[in-house]
Amino acid sequence: MSPQNRPPDIRRDLGAKLRRMREAAHLRLEVAAPKLDKSRSALHRVETGETRANVHLVRSMMDLYDTYDPTLLDEVRKANQTSNPRNRTQPTTSS
Q1: Does the reported pTM lie above 0.85?
Q2: Handedness of CA 43, 49, 51, 57 (dihedral sign)
Q3: What's the gap between Cα 69 and its chain centre?
């Protein structure tokens, strides 16, 4: 993956945290993905930060993995806000 196509650090870190939660629950991708209504590859992309996780998916993950992290949903919101190009301010040009 080229540096310009790499997911932002915050999204990669969040994905790694979600992967560790799944692994701590002793669930393989092949088992967890269908229970979350995801394909194996879709869940893998979330865990590597290639795809954004949404709050609803992460709540389902916490339920499935029997783990509650009170700060996790705020991390999801922050990762989505910083990785959404529409939320970035554009430089203004002065005349």
Answers
A1: no
A2: positive
A3: 14
pLDDT in tens, 1-59: 545 555 678 999 999 999 999 999 999 999 999 999 999 999 999 999 999 999 999 99
The answer to whether 11 touches 52, Cβ cutoff 8 Å, is yes
Nearest-angstrom CA–CA distance, 64 and 21: 10
pLDDT in tens, 59-86: 999 999 999 998 999 999 999 887 545 4
Q: How far is CA 39 from the centre of its chain?
A: 15
